Amino acid sequence: MTDEVEQEVSTGSLPVWDQVERLAQEAHARARGHDEGVVADYIPVLAEADPSLFGVCVAEARGGPVHAVGDAAVEFSVQSISKAFVYALVCEEHGHEMVRDRVGVNNTGLSFNSVIAVELNDGHPMNPMVNAGALATTALVPGASSAERWEHVRTGLSRFAGRRLELDGVVYRSESATNTRNKAIARLLQSYGRIDLDPLEVVDVYTRQCALRVSARDLAVMGATLADGGVNPVTGERVVSGQVCRDTLAVLAATGMYERSGEWLFEIGLPAKSGVSGGIVAIAPGKGAIGTFSPRVDPAGNSVRGRLATAYLSRALGLNVFASSAQPSVQRGADASGRRA
Ligand code: GLN
């Protein structure tokens, strides 16, 4: 599994700048009228979000300014989308194998905060994008104390975004006062010997990471860093290795949209991660990323308008990683050596 080959890159490129700009606007216009879904309220303060907000942003992996439409600069708490980037930081620290064995890479088929999923798998958290696996991942963040681990997360996610991300204290306190289920999951993992640290301290760092403030534009740049082999295309800084990007995107493809991951991949064909506050980031390796924000979410916790806008852009920009067309330059009927029969 560890055999390395020299080059492993996604093929193709984005359309020209003006066309991406126009299609980003079109994606926003097409999805804007949809008001299905509900604003999440199990974290009390999230219920206060304005459901009319809607931002779309495309960041190109090759750098330069981004394509931002609508409320792309409005900030909201990153929530579960943090799981993808903390996972990347932890993979960078501990490597492919250790994280795969400890946290796992398989979909649970159950909701993001499922306790049963942990029980059904002998205490294995299964994957880093559900709460159990995210807690197990946050427990692997380097640092001698919770404060150091939190700082590692905050600075790491800020490097992905290319600017200093701040904690939303109101969201943090609201979730801290109500996250008994996450505390129960962390205790359950402890009972199975799956986390070595104090479970409540791990939950605290996790709750902070979920309360970092980002915009749709930030999500696009963070995603474009994963699309760009780990180099932030706006700042030029290397944040993680190319291998870590590949590992993270594979996990996102399998699990990033929770129990809807298969359906998402079937319809949209991009690794992606959603958060219950209404953000989605979708990544096209080698090309760029789409960040969207709109607070109304479907029953799995995925933003409805974000899904529609991303689906449109995946198609219109030619991003689906499974899509191919016959290469006109290849001569049909050639034998294995490339010679025509
Ligand atoms: N902080 C939230 C939680 O742990 C994140 C959930 C989400 O975005 N799906 O419940």
Write the layout of secondary structure elements.
Blueprint: H1 17-32, E1 38-39, E2 55-60, E3 67-70, E4 76-77, H2 81-94, H3 96-103, H4 116-120, H5 131-138, H6 146-161, H7 169-176, H8 180-191, H9 199-210, E5 213-214, H10 216-227, H11 242-255, H12 261-267, E6 272-274, E7 279-284, E8 288-293, E9 296-297, H13 304-316
Antiparallel strand pairs: 1-9, 2-3, 2-8, 4-5, 6-7, 7-8
Helix pairs in contact: 1-13, 2-3, 2-6, 2-11, 5-8, 5-9, 6-9, 6-10, 8-9
The structure holds glutamine.
Structure notes:
The chain is built from 13 helices and nine strands. It is α+β, with helices and mostly antiparallel strands. It has one domain (17-316): Beta-lactamase. The strands form three sheets. It has a five-stranded antiparallel sheet, with helices on both faces. It has a two-stranded antiparallel sheet with strand order 1-9. A hairpin with a 4-residue loop joins strand 6 and strand 7. Helix 8 (180-191) crosses helix 9. The longest helix has 16 residues, at 17-32. The site of glutamine (GLN) has 11 residues, from loops. Glutamine binds at residues 79-80, 112-113, 131, 175, 182, 210, 275-276, 301.
Question: Which descriptors apply to this entry?
Answer:
341 residues, 43% helix, two-stranded antiparallel ribbon, single chain, alpha+beta, globular, five-stranded antiparallel beta sheet, binds glutamine, Beta-lactamase
Summarize the structure.
With about 350 residues, this protein is of the alpha+beta class. Helix content is about 45%, strand content about 10%.
